[in-house]
C-alpha cells in the first residue's frame, strides 16, 4: 500500500490490520504521535487526514491510501516552527510533553474547523459560526487529555497562535 504522509509518499508492505498510528510509528519511524490509551480516548495519537482530526489508533492504515496525512513531524520544523508550536513553547503549554504532539496537531485542525465556520456544543450561535472563546477552545479540545493538567496554558497557547495565524493570513 502507499501512504502520503507529510507530503512524502511511502510504500508499505504491512498487515492489513495495522492501525495508522502503528504504521507511522513502527514502520516509518514517525514516533511523534503517541500511543496513549490505544482506545481513542486520550488524543495523544491525533493526526490530520485531509485536514480533519482523527485518532490514528482507531483507523486502519489501509483505509487511508490516497489521503493527505499530517503528523506532528509535518507541522513546522526546527528553526521554522509552526505558530502553534511557538505558542506552546511561549505559554509553557506542556509539562511532561507526552500529550503535546497530539495537542498541537489537534489545535491546528481545530483552528481549521473554526475557520470553516463549524460550530461546537459551546458555540453561542450555531448559525453565525464559532467565536474562539476560552469555552469554545476547551470544548473543541476536550478529546485531548493532559495528565499534567496544563490546560490553562494550552488554551492560552491556542489563543495566541490563532491571533498570529490570522495576522499572517
Task: Show the helix and strand layout.
Layout: E1 2-5, E2 8-11, H1 20-28, E3 46-49, E4 52-55, E5 68-70, H2 83-90, H3 100-115, H4 134-140, H5 151-168
Parallel strand pairs: 1-5
Antiparallel strand pairs: 1-2, 3-4, 3-5
Keywords: 2Fe-2S, Iron, Iron-sulfur, Metal-binding, Oxidoreductase
Pfam families: Fer2, Fer2_2
Domain 2Fe-2S ferredoxin-type: 1-75
How would you describe this structure to a colleague?
With 169 residues, the chain is an alpha+beta fold. The protein folds into 2 domains: 2-74, Beta-grasp domain (Ubiquitin-like (UB roll)), CATH 3.10.20.30; 83-168, [2Fe-2S]-binding domain (DNA polymerase, domain 1). Helix content is 34%, strand content 11%. The chain contains 5 helices and 5 strands; from the N terminus they run E-E-H-E-E-E-H-H-H-H. A 5-stranded mixed sheet has the order 2-1-5-3-4, covered by helices on one side. Helix 2 (83-90) packs antiparallel against helix 5. The mean pLDDT is 94.
Secondary-structure content class: alpha+beta
Beta strand %: 5-15%
Which fold name fills CATH's third level, the topology of the largest domain? DNA polymerase, domain 1
Which consecutive residue ranges, at least 5 long each, have pLDDT under 50? Answer: none
| CATH class identity of the largest domain | Mainly Alpha
CATH architecture of the largest domain: Orthogonal Bundle
Helix content: 25-40%
| CATH homologous superfamily descriptor of the largest domain | [2Fe-2S]-binding domain
Major sheet summary line: 5 strands, mixed
The total number of structural domains is 2
What is the C-alpha radius of gyration, as a whole number of Å? Answer: 16 Å
**What gross morphology would you assign?**
globular
Q: How confident is the prediction overall: mean pLDDT?
A: 94
Domain 2Fe-2S ferredoxin-type: 1-75
GO molecular function, one term: 2 iron, 2 sulfur cluster binding
Protein name: 2Fe-2S iron-sulfur cluster binding domain-containing protein
InterPro entries: 2Fe-2S-bd, 2Fe-2S-bd_dom_sf, 2Fe-2S_ferredoxin-like_sf, 2Fe-2S_ferredoxin-type, 2Fe2S_fd_BS, Aldehyde_Oxdr_Iron-Sulfur, Beta-grasp_dom_sf
Amino acid at each position: 500500500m502507499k501512504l502520503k504522509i507529510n507530503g512524502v509518499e511511502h510504500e508499505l508492505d504491512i498487515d492489513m490490520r495495522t492501525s495508522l498510528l502503528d504504521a507511522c510509528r513502527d514502520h516509518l519511524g514517525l514516533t511523534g504521535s503517541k500511543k496513549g490509551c490505544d482506545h481513542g480516548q486520550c488524543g495523544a495519537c491525533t493526526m490530520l487526514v485531509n485536514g480533519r482530526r482523527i485518532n490514528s489508533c482507531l483507523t486502519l492504515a489501509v483505509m487511508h491510501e490516497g489521503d493527505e496525512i499530517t503528523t506532528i513531524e509535518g507541522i513546522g520544523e526546527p528553526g521554522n516552527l509552526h505558530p502553534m508550536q511557538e505558542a506552546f513553547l511561549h505559554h509553557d503549554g506542556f509539562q511532561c510533553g507526552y500529550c503535546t504532539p497530539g495537542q498541537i496537531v489537534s489545535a491546528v485542525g481545530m483552528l481549521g474547523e473554526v475557520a470553516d465556520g463549524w460550530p461546537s456544543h459551546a458555540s453561542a450561535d450555531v448559525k453565525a459560526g464559532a467565536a474562539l472563546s476560552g469555552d469554545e477552545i476547551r470544548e473543541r479540545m476536550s478529546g485531548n487529555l493532559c495528565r499534567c493538567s496544563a490546560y490553562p496554558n494550552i488554551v492560552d497557547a491556542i489563543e495566541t497562535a490563532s491571533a498570529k495565524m490570522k495576522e499572517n493570513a
